[in-house]
Amino acid sequence: MSDSTLPLSDKIALVTGASRGIGRAAALALAKAGAHVVAVARTEGGLTELDDEIRGATGQPATLVPLDIAEGNGLDQLGLALHQRFGRLDVLVHAAAILGPMTPVSHLEPHHWDKVMAVNLTASYRLIRSLEPLLRASEAGRAIFLTSGRAARPKAFWGPYGITKAGLEHMVRTWADELEQTSVRAVLLDPNTMRTKMRAEAMPGEDPETVTPPEEIGPLIVELAQADLGLPTANVVFAEWKARGRLVSA
Fold it and tell me: Are the beta carbons of 244 and 237 closer than 8 angstroms?
């Protein structure tokens, strides 16, 4: 049974990239806030470990979906399955992404380009396409997309990742504008530097103990899932939220 005193009691929350890093932290925070979590990731082992932790913290299971989000047909089927089981989606946290090769744009192999685009950008479009009807069926659907400061600040060798995040930001703002007259709201969340596998890949010489653990972003994601958000004219930035102790206007 759900605890009606929790802020997200009886809410359905889908999290991509849920087996590790920020996605895992988001899934745990949402579950502890009362939501039933639908956890999506490629690795079954990571999902099982997440489910064990959610059960231990809440006494309730998660719904586990082993899926590579680059498989567009799989995302279509996910939307159908959620419709059949729940009839709605209250919260979407799209945290799944890959870094791609750290290389000059002119040296990038086409198959690497295609992979980063498929995971970081095309999958985001397919998620929106598949899940919008479910978010509209919620009283107040909330979609939280993880972005990066690299979208606005290009840097050598970060091309594929930064390009996809810039495209994601444009897409989410466009989609949000289209939903202005509905109860669905979308937000772009910049987590800044966090202790994730992607960060370790990008900065292999960095001491991970000097980097913020992803668990710290969980309360902000829970807050965004409840917030009366406006249209995203600026990114929500974790460091600013942490410093001010309140939401920065989206």
Answer: no
**pTM, 2 dp:** 0.92
pLDDT in tens, 6-64: 999 999 999 999 999 999 999 999 999 999 999 999 999 999 999 999 999 999 999 99
Answer for the pair 203, 177: CB distance below 8 angstroms, yes or no: no
Which residues lie closer than 8 Å to 39 by C-beta, 6 or more apart?
15, 18, 19, 27, 47, 50, 51, 62, 63, 64, 65
Give the active site residue among 161, 175, 238, 241: 161
pLDDT tens digits for range 100-140: 999 999 999 999 999 999 999 999 999 999 999 999 999 99
The CATH classification number of 12-244 equals 3.40.50.720
Reply yes or no on whether 161 is catalytic: yes
